[in-house]
Amino acid sequence: MTHIIWEDNHLIAAFKRSGQTVQPEPNKPASLEEEVKDYIKEKYNKPGAVYLGVIHRLDMPVEGIVIFAKTSKALVRMNEIFQQREVQKVYHAWVERKPATESGHLVNWLKRDENKNFTKAYHTEINKSEKAELLYQVLKTKGKNALLKVTLLTGRKHQIRVQLATMGCPILGDKKYGATYAFSDNYIALQATELSFIHPVSNERILLTIPDLVFPT
User: Fold this and answer.
1) Average pLDDT taken over every residue of the chain
2) pLDDT classification of 199: cutoffs 50, 70, 90
3) Which of 70, 115, 117, 172 could be 189's S-S partner, Cβ–Cβ 3.0 to 4.6 Å?
4) Which domains does the chain carry?
């Protein structure tokens, strides 16, 4: 069942499950986009095709808030808002090993290998790398593991995963980036828990949140 977090006439936010794609992909289960279209079609009894604009994405193993545009006007304006980094994105992550400090500001230069779908982090700029920044705060611990609140200052592919791993704190279940074990369903303990932005039509501040990430079992 599709979990709708919030909606109005212009935008709709839904919860993406771990293992689900945002957009349709061959040989993959129903995407979040398809599920939200079905929800709109049924709720509003819409004939024919349903318009839904994809604004941003989450990695397949990551769960959390994804927002879509219900009109082309909203899509254009939200794309501008995201491109201008006027959206605050907050994540929660359970990591192996507590960081050395309770909070911090990570700065790395990331380089992608698209063939391997892998990102590598460097401490200094190299050719064809992109600067990546995030803030983290330790919220609580469980044994040697820690729950971090992560605020993105840039948006790069696999950014949180590779930056935390480079700090020596890989996300639980994320073997691609150095975790000691994987969960059976390819889940990793990373969740997009908060989105905040100025509404593209009403100009009101919108804050979307979901409960903090529970420790995976």
Assistant:
1) 95
2) very high
3) 172
4) 4-87 (3.30.2350.10), 90-190 (3.30.2350.10)
